[in-house]
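BACKBONE GEOMETRY TOKENS:
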Amino acid sequence: MRIADFNHFLLELSHLTDSQIQLVENILTDKNSIQGIISGIEQRLVDKPECPHCHSRVINRHGKSGAMQRYRCKNCLRTFNASTGTPLAHLRLKDRWLSYIGTMIQGKVLRDSASDCGINLKTAFLWRHRLLTLPALMKPKSLEGIVEVDETFFAYSEKGNKALTGRKPKKRGVESKRAGLSVADRVPVLTARDRAHHTFEAILPATTTKQIKQELSSKIEKDSVLCSDGFKSYIRFARDNDLIYKRLNSAAGIRVIEKVFHIQNVNAYHSRLKSWMEHFHGVATKYLDHYLGWFRYLDTSENPNKNELLQFQQQLTGT
């Protein structure tokens, strides 16, 4: 808008009625409106101006596109906006982002999310996995105190692939018919959880001592107490990292030691995770890490609701 037009607009504001002034204030301050969403995203570059390409801090405004301010870097001469380099880059229909995140917090399946937000099923799928890139990376850097560790297993799935690699098709969501911990059609997920409810998860190629050491090394603070079901790999890991080790043996009826040490928290977490996963009727193994991060976010947030939508959006854009 030209300066002359803007000054004329300001003069016209003095003629508004009280109800009209209130309406304008509501539009400008509503964080769930499209302008509120854009303002929240663009605040990142206002607080910390930086080129996402070369990280130079010398940037200039460079017009607008799709109601978003564009910038031009004086160092590399490339243009960008506040969503460049974030999971929200190139996504359209900004006015529906928050309502879509709301359906994700409710754990809705893709078709329900697409129907509620009035978007195409393919768009819903794209948005889901773009938005889940951040929660998948949100893992605690360290665990301390009493740390419970155990593994759980998910059926290997090529859901969505048009051509399967090396096996016959089967109904998705069906568990393996073969027993055991290392069968080819089961994917092991290592879970370590302390009593502060900090949860670390990792998808393992196999439940070997080498893989467990690789994932848990430097994740558990010294002088912590490691509780597990007695799997030999955990025993070796605790010994090599100078951790106090408490072995639980459910088969022998030893589920709690000294009324404090047990793995009931991590087992309860696995139970909630598996129950939550059921309504997706199986998830593709290549996206399993996204779903684990999704559930961690929901499980660690107390009573997640729509009040957290803006916070989640700000995490996605780095604000």
